[in-house]
Amino acid sequence: MPEQLLYAMEVTLNGLMAGVMYSLVALGFVLIFKASGIFNYAQGVLALFAALTLVGLQNGQIPFAHLINAALGTNLHSFGWKLPVLVAIALTALVMVGLAILIEKLVLKHLVNQAPIILFMATIGLAYFLEGLGDVMWGADIKKLDVGLPQGISETVESVTDSIFGYGFFIDNLDIVATVVAVLLVASLTIFSQYSKQGRALRAVADDHQAALSVGISLRFIWVLVWSIAGFVALVAGIMWGTKSGVQFSLSLIALKALPVLMLGGFTSIPGAIVGGLIIGVGEKLFEFSVGPMIGGATENWFAYMLALIFLVFRPQGLFGEKIIERV
Amino acid sequence: MNAMTEGYVTPDGRQIGPVLMEMKNITLRFGGVVAIKDISFDIREGEIRAIIGPNGAGKSSMLNVISGFYVPSEGEVWFRGQKRGPMKPYEVARLGIARTFQNIALFDGMSVLDNIMTGRLTMMKSGLLSQALWFGSAEREENENRAKVEKIIDFLEIQNIRKTPVGRLPYGLKKRVELARALAAEPKILLLDEPMAGMNVEEKEDMCRFILDVNDEFGTTIALIEHDMGVVMDLSDRVVVMDYGKKIGDGTPDEVRNNPDVINAYLGVAHE
Ligand SMILES: Nc1ncnc2c1ncn2[C@@H]1O[C@H](COP(=O)(O)OP(=O)(O)OP(=O)(O)O)[C@@H](O)[C@H]1O
Ligand SMILES: [Mg+2]
């Protein structure tokens, strides 16, 4: 096989895996948007908050230690234990459920029947609040997240591809894990939504609030449920991205990577979020690989947005979104 | 012996039960608009109760009060001999009060079958955790509910469209699917807001037959709003007549038909 083609294959594979990471974030947006029509600006911060909480719990950090020390003149930092990874993850998931309940009680409940723009504004407020809360609870320093996921170039992939093509592919182990996790996550979400009682209720609420109420579905329960699931998806995204590049404020900016994915895949489609993420991941890497060198590189910063813009012009509802028909 | 608690038999031999639901002095205001003015009436077990009146009379508002979508400004709702506290629509639904809407509220993106299955949500018990941990129980429950739903599908003769997304159906069939979803909840009371509006003659006849059959076979109590006087006279045991938010008549179809206030409201002329 010609060398150029092999390079391109390697780049494509890497792109697919980067795409999975984008999809993970986009998924959280889609879930909430489908069920409540809210564009949740806080989704990225949710991922940051989850990752911070996970690191904090894992290392036995005392929450609000700064506040407590300032108020009482103490010098507390940590409980002095380390929690096993699985326990810490389970506890963090519980924290995310608690957060969902609080968000419903303190915010959403009071904004029922408000215009989407108001709800959107509320989530902006929520984003800044959570960002602050994360800082106050766990401190603003950059943290290292290690839940034991393998990292670095996969030697297996390298040696296998080397023996087949005579050229070893460089694929990051973490990307492989992220892909597997994302596939599992999407599969279980799909099974849940298609075959469980709550899943059916969730689809019902996403479709028509009035009708959902009339068959005995509590909107508030469903909202807590979707925000919990979105919180859990944020936790997964937070673990992957946090492991990759550390837990710090910039983690919340992965939300910006999800926007073009949503434009591409449509705001209401779970398969759209996945395929959209993959297209952007691959497109971005291939473009950088083929055209990048000619125009000075760093195309990954803007390529996704340009692709999304072009898409918007030709298919405003996204790849899988329902066709928008103007009724006159 | 008292008709309130015992029920009675109509001249044409229909068994009517005791009072199931009672509206006491209901008033409903929207800002300055008074949609319902101090109305009282009852619904008896097993009967078909019609609410009629000109456009804007407050009929849908009354149905919305019964189903919890509107909270009355004044007055009380009594159900099965107990005063009902303030309730959310979904709580009312869980009491066994199912409804359809004047403007049809279905889940357009879901199939006919899935739409009707949502009607059974109030009947399903498996919790989130048990479904996750032991798929078997959830699966058995799903199958049982599926069987019930298939019966309703047969009953309403919509077998051939059960996999069709509801959004693609013509109006008349949508109304039928909405009825099916309400029936799936095995309700004590079925509230129908203009179930025959916008249908052609044939569809109307079908719908009439279904309503009578539901009442007959399942003993379901039905309260319905309808404009077509012929239909109302044929179907209902008793009729409440509303006009401008007030109750102007209440009784058997014959009584109501001969009530001067009612004739007045419908014909718009003084009737001496
Ligand atoms: N949500 C609401 N907000 C404000 N006003 C309302 C609301 N719902 C109903 N109304 C008003 O209450 C009055 C009664 O309306 P309602 O829909 O109950 O009449 P209706 O008898 O069902 O009429 P139709 O035969 O046209 O369906 C009308 O004046 C209507 O504008
Ligand atoms: Mg009406």
TrEMBL record, chain A:
It comes from Phaeovulum veldkampii DSM 11550. The keyword 4Fe-4S does not apply. Keywords: Amino-acid transport, Cell membrane, Membrane, Transmembrane, Transmembrane helix, Transport. It is a multi-pass membrane protein. Pfam families: BPD_transp_2. Belongs to the binding-protein-dependent transport system permease family. LivHM subfamily. GO terms for biological process: amino acid transport. The lineage of its organism: Bacteria, Pseudomonadati, Pseudomonadota, Alphaproteobacteria, Rhodobacterales. It is found in: Cell membrane. InterPro entries: ABC_transp_permease (IPR001851), BCAA_transport_permease (IPR052157). GO terms for cellular component: plasma membrane. This is Branched-chain amino acid ABC transporter permease. Coiled coil: none annotated. It comes from the Bacteria. GO terms for molecular function: transmembrane transporter activity. The chain crosses the membrane at residues 12-33, 45-65, 85-103, 110-130, 176-196, 217-241, 261-282, 294-314.
From TrEMBL, chain B:
InterPro entries: AAA+_ATPase, ABC_AA/LPS_Transport, ABC_transporter-like_ATP-bd, BCA_ABC_TP_C, P-loop_NTPase. Keywords: ATP-binding, Nucleotide-binding, Transport. The keyword RNA-binding does not apply. PANTHER family: ABC TRANSPORTER ATP-BINDING PROTEIN, CONSERVED COMPONENT OF ABC TRANSPORTER FOR NATURAL AMINO ACIDS-RELATED. The keyword RNA-binding does not apply. It comes from the Bacteria. GO terms for cellular component: plasma membrane. Gene3D superfamilies: P-loop containing nucleotide triphosphate hydrolases. This is ABC transporter ATP-binding protein. One of its GO terms (molecular function) is ATP binding. Residues 21-269 form the ABC transporter domain.
